[in-house]
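stage 2 :: seqdesign
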């Protein structure tokens, strides 16, 4: 692995994020969103807050910043509180795969 390979991967990621409309999110919001997608499981794609926080993409984010990013993702409709659960569980909304859905 060399820096050229990493730069090519980063360019590809930027292109994909642009296509999905994710460039409108802050880097922290994107990291939290990616962490939620990584740890979500089941038919409804539910993710527990503790699992999200322990994911490498979200673990180093300060607590207050993490909560602001999560709140923003909920307000944007990208994730929502999981139904029939206590606080601390989130689900990925269906519009995640649609281009420009942010």
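stage 2 :: out
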């Amino acid at each position: 692995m060399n820096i050229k390979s990493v730069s090519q991967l980063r360019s590809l990621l930027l292109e994909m994020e642009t296509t999905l409309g994710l460039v409108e999110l802050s880097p922290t919001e994107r990291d939290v969103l990616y962490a939620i997608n990584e740890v979500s499981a089941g038919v409804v794609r539910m993710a527990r807050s503790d699992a999200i926080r322990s994911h490498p993409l979200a673990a180093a984010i300060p607590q207050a910043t993490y909560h602001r990013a999560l709140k923003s993702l909920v307000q944007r409709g990208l994730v929502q509180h999981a139904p029939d659960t206590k606080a601390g569980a989130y689900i990925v909304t269906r519009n995640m795969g649609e281009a420009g859905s942010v």
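stage 3 :: structure notes
- The chain has a mean pLDDT of 89.
- The helical segments are 3-20, 27-39, 49-54, 63-75.
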